[in-house]
What does this fold into?
Amino acid sequence: MALPILQSLAVFAATWIAWRVLRRLVRGDPFAPLRGPPSPSYITGCMKLLFSNTGMAYHEHLVKTYGRAFRLPGMFGETLLYVHDPKAMHHLVVKDTHIYEESDDFLLTNKNVFGKGLLATIGDDHRRQRKMLTPAFSINHMREMTPTFYGIIHKLRESITQQVVPGGEVEEIDLLSWMTRTALELIGQGGFGYSFDTLEHDAPEHPYSAAIKNYLSALNTPSLLLTRLFLSPRLWELGSPKFRRAVINAIPWKGLHELRDLVDIMDGTAVEIFESSKRALNDSESDLSKRIGGGKDVMSALLKANMTASEEDRMPDDELLAQISTFIFAGMDTTSNGLARILHLLSEHQEVQDKLRQEVSEAYEKQDGDLDYDTLNSLAYLDAVCRESLRLHPPAFAVLREAKVDGVLPLGRPIITTDGREVSEIFVPKGTKIFLSIHHCNREEEIWGPDAAEWKPERWMAPLPSSVADARVPGIYSNMMTFLGGGRACIGFKFSQLEMKVVLSLLVQRFKFAPSGKKVVWLNNGIIQPSTEDSPLTAMGHKKLHLPLNVSFAKSA
It folds into this structure.
């Protein structure tokens, strides 16, 4: 069976490539007048450089050379747009979302991996799901979940204490591993009333934790990434799910099979969580308050709301199930790596760490116990550290959009074309992929000032320059694009902020973090993740992800 399938796929791929090349030759390049880099390869264009996990320097070169909006050579002569102009971003994520949507690759990959959840739907389906989910992420609900979060982080703190305790000496600890385990447990209990991890320092890693941690690295290997970007929108639509599974099994491609196995682990766990939540809700004798998280988790709230929703708003079981892996994927990797980045920054800036420790220590002494939601969010310097870290180092470097129909993209600042003309808008033909750089919009000097590329939490302790408000960046959070904006903004950004603040306040109060001496490098695997220069390769062939920091007891502890 394998040989006929492979032959059919080869014919399909060759036909698809030939059609793409012919279409380009017939219609020409609509972005030819725009400035941009030369193509190093007709087959792959700039895609290998653009999506390389070590390619951040290439992005810096592009933006420094070509500005806020420029063309990029894609695969087989295709041209992409690269944008970080705030006005253009407003049209892309807020005003003209009927024109610019998630790319077919993004939607179909998420649909096949996670199911028909928030990351795999557009239009009315997406709005209906978001309407049902939004109350579960309200501030009032975050207030109710705060004690659950504290219970988890106290376990984390005690486990790290056990690693440091011999003689109170400095210990090198992989903080990424702890942040990953903790973020999964927070989303498990806070999201689904489910425990993944005891957070004991010698406990084995939950299979789901390993799977989700390796998922992005596996998905974004150069060969898989280029295949997805160019062919997968059509491959995902071939035949039934059973047929596509047979195709995947038949292809002699180790990386694809490893990805399949990771997805199987995630899917199996999601089904287990969903069935457990449904049983608890349907059991008339079940006391939800005795469930993990006290029945305050997002899934319990969603299931209860769904039971009383109108027919047109109600979500079927397959959509409810899809939200589980969607939430874990969207919330775990971004938060864990965002926390790892903050701890790394604090280790390199001891004066900031000391000032933060003083603020949180004084707050806990006054409270004589855990802080409630509002008190935690009133800590100005903790808030400044989080905001500045998320501005300068957004966990998601960029997002892609695709023009579903012809459109015109206005620019906040005119650009100069190759023939010397000044233009204030760009015609965008249907099918164009647009690369939105969150990273560079957050670091724009015209918005944030000449020190925009520096980590300065103090900038948030005084009124921001008027240029920040004047730029009208369309982000949902603090005039930055970290959590996006518009109808596809991160629905769980308050959940993520609460996680970060509880973790940082309890850990910094007790521990001092310092560099380990190993050079930390940050890799762009779709999410920015830490490793070290001399890090070994994993069994899957990816650079090992870890953040080794020296940890000791803080003097005030």
